[in-house]
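Morning!

As promised:
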Amino acid sequence: MKRGEHSFIFGPNGSGKSTLLKTIMGIPSYIVESGSIKYNGFEITGMNVYERSKIGITMAFQQPPEISGVKLSQMLKLCLRKKRTDEFSPDEKNAIERFRLKEFLDRDVNVGFSSGERKRAEILQMLFLKPSLILLDEPDSGVDVDSLKLLSEELDNYLRTSNASSLIITHKGDILDYIKAERACVVMDGMNHCFPDPRTVYAEIRAGGYEHCLSCSTRIQEEAS
Amino acid sequence: MTRESLVGLPHRVLNEAMRVGVNVDESDTSGVFFHVDQKTIYSKMGEAFDDQIEMMDTRDALEKYPWLKERMWTLVNMDKDEYTREVAENWSGGYFIYIKPGARVTFPLQSCLMITAENSRQRVHNIIIAGEGSESQVLTTCAQHQEARVGAHLGVSEIWVEDRAKLSYTMVHHWSPETVVRPRTGIRVSDGAEFVSNYICLTPAKDLQMEPKAICDGVGSKAVFNSVLYIQPGSRMDLGSWSVLNGRGSVTELNTRAITRSGSHLISRGTIDGNNDECRGHLECRGLLLDEESVLEAIPILRASKSGAELSHEAAIGKLSEEGVTYLMSRGLNKDEAVGVLIRGFMDISIMGLSSGVRQEIEKIIDMVTMAS
């Protein structure tokens, strides 16, 4: 991927989409058995999740854990490198209000949050970290129409103004309306089939399912060769 | 003999008190009491609370109120063990706090019992009477001066929470690795009264054993015991709380959060006796083991003598969530910082329902200890 480039990841359940993102993030239970991961020209395969976070890679988890005793306000301040006693700046307060999270600030992170609330909290944390590579695991699942619009517009705004790159897993495809991605990757049978136009790929998948997508991919490759 | 002002206290006492988190700013408290080694050296009420509370050394209280003699040793058995007998035979005072009927004490009463002399055995007898319909908070810190390595603290405390009174009693222990600690506490909770104990122990002690016992005799009486324990290297602690529900509609909650590390050993006990058909009690213990060298035992006991008693317990012991550590690391925290945040979160005291003043004090103490370790 080039800097500032965005890709959607499609694929059937269990094909390894989330595994791909977690491996890039460096989640400890995901081991790279062969190959390597390079970021900005540097080999990062041996880096832990903290080190990858420090070089600008961040991930919004599909099912983030509940962190008892840690309030959302503290978590957001950790992302902003602020002390617990520091105040949020006016811009930060504004973002918290836009994400409709003000009333959650004194609640334990993700404890009792609905699916949509978790998504909003995840993406705000991620944006506060100011990453250069965003990994999003199904940001459009379990969110209502208004939340999807809000999250997508916020993400789009950040991606456009920061020149950050993104890898976004989606099943529903709703987010395609908001984020202009250059490429689509279809993860199937352990292979990554990349195509230039996410909308066309998504339409093909909707029309003929993933099997059709695979045969189409094979045909394109044969034609190319 | 007591000083006129806190400024008159020896610097080494005052500095140590501040180091362990005692609030020595008298404007934030309704009264301050200091008992150092074998002597009460300071006892003063804020003027605004003079007509609402009395606070003095227990020996002085016995002279002022002869009836007190009849009450003493009725909630703790003098012959309970060698420690109670030792206090009965040779004691050096302690605090007597009388919250008058109907009093509303908005600022906490701050007491500090400190050992400063090496090999000292401190033997105190404390009395609290929360008068009918009163509402108050007592914040007690028991500490050993860092220059006095070896010592023993034997403390008998008897607490009466009279009809419809509410008493929040927060005790912070701050011992040294060579201190032997034996508190012996009895509480009686009367009709419609509420007693909340918050116990915080975050520093080491060689050997600490206690099990305060609340007798809820009153109709609709309530006793809550919250404990936050961070058991430090080399410490052996046997800590519990015990509620006896005799009154109709009496209720109790026992909540413990405990962390053991680096070869420490904790026995966390909780006992509820349900002796009334309309009583209710719940006991919860959550424990966290930070390594393989420590031991944490949770011993819940529910004992019902009436079929209508509703008693329950939950106990869970485990390790720090690796998923949580990874999650925080993905937010830019290194592993030590992530573990620190999770430990601090585990010791969340928001469940205790403390007033904001006391809560801030306790938060400050927990921050100091978790950052230092």
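Chain A touches chain B at residues 25, 27-28, 48-50, 53-54, 58-59, 61, 64-65, 67-70, 74-75, 78-79, 81, 108, 125, 129 (CB under 8 Å).

Hope this helps with the figure draft.
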